[in-house]
UniProtKB/TrEMBL annotation:
The keyword Methyltransferase does not apply. GO terms for biological process: bacterial-type flagellum-dependent swarming motility. Belongs to the flagella basal body rod proteins family. This is Flagellar hook-basal body protein. Residues 5-35 form the Flagellar basal body rod protein N-terminal domain. Residues 123-176 form the Flagellar hook protein FlgE/F/G-like D1 domain. InterPro entries: Flag_bb_rod_N (IPR001444), Flagellar_basal_body_rod_CS (IPR019776), Flagellar_FlgE/F/G (IPR020013), Flg_bb/hook_C_dom (IPR010930), FlgE/F/G-like (IPR037925), LlgE_F_G-like_D1 (IPR053967). It is found in: Bacterial flagellum basal body. Residues 228-272 form the Flagellar basal-body/hook protein C-terminal domain. It comes from the Bacteria. PROSITE patterns: FLAGELLA_BB_ROD. SUPFAM superfamilies: Flagellar hook protein flgE.
Length: 277
């Protein structure tokens, strides 16, 4: 009986966390460059139940021997193992703003797990290392530096801040940034062979777990991408699919809740009625 409480409670917790994840995805359905999170729910190891009994041998002095009869397996609950961002290419949305730069990921190597890598913009991390993002919704600050919506500096391929006189500049497909037909810098782009291992921060930012910077995408074999000025990469959230999954998670939570209530009524009856006898 008590094991049933634990099993149902674990299911409710897993579905609650899945609902929170899907809600966050839905809230970022219109966030440029947002990569939708996916959840991985796994079950705890099953237990094999057996019934203990005894068997008497027909001898002169009866001999009793223990006997186990297999009943079957029993689940011990589920848990959310991890959440992984889905690094697929988002749809390009035209804004006609010169500071909006969309990245189009063409071809990238496939890692040992069968997953494709990902290319990301390089941003300065005020603490240590670098931040990475696919949100190309950039702007110029008061000093003319190219920054992201949170005010973090966009880095060049040499790791330097990019400073411009005004927003009258052009971005070539290969990432070169031109002002007055002169190359000012090349927008920094890094490549992650295992993007699922990146740590996700707020506002669509990523960083490495060990604090080491990712390799430059320009120097990595097999990586092909391009940039398009005046466009933004849309979110990878499928609103209709996410809403359906939210309803499914809610119904699963509700079903576990009904089972928990049934267990509670059974325990109440056992204490108040059977215990009275």
């Amino acid at each position: 009986m008590f094991r049933g409480f634990y099993t149902v409670a674990s299911g409710m917790i897993a579905q609650q966390r899945r609902t929170e994840l899907l809600t966050n995805n839905m809230a970022n359905a219109n966030t440029p460059g947002y990569k939708a999170d996916q959840s991985v729910i796994r079950s705890f190891p099953d237990m094999l139940m057996a019934r203990m009994g005894s068997k008497s041998l027909p001898v002169q002095d009866p001999l009793s021997m223990k006997k186990l009869s297999t009943v079957g397996g029993i689940s011990t609950g589920v848990y959310m193992q991890e959440t992984l961002p889905h690094f697929e290419q988002g749809q390009l949305l035209e804004t006609e703003l010169p500071t909006d730069i969309a990245m189009l990921q063409n071809t990238v190597p496939i890692n040992a797990d069968g997953n494709p890598g990902a290319v990301l913009y390089r941003l300065e991390n005020p603490v240590a290392g670098e931040y990475y993002t696919r949100n190309g919704n950039f702007t110029l600050d008061a000093d003319g530096y190219l920054t992201n919506p949170q005010g973090l500096y966009v880095l060049s391929d040499t790791g330097q801040r990019i400073q411009l006189q005004n927003d009258d500049f052009q971005v070539e497909a290969d990432g070169r940034l031109l002002a007055n037909n002169q190359e000012v810098a090349r927008i920094g782009v890094s490549f992650s062979a295992a993007p699922e291992s990146l740590l996700k921060e707020e506002n669509g930012l990523f960083r490495t777990a060990d604090g080491q910077n990712l390799a430059s995408a320009y120097d990595t074999d097999g990586v092909a991408f391009s940039m398009q000025q005046g466009f933004l990469e849309g979110s990878t959230v499928d609103s209709a699919k996410t809403m359906t999954e939210m309803l499914t998670a809610y119904r699963a939570f509700e079903a576990n809740q009904k089972i928990l209530q049934a267990y509670d009524r059974s325990m109440e009856k056992a204490v108040n009625e059977i215990g009275r006898v």
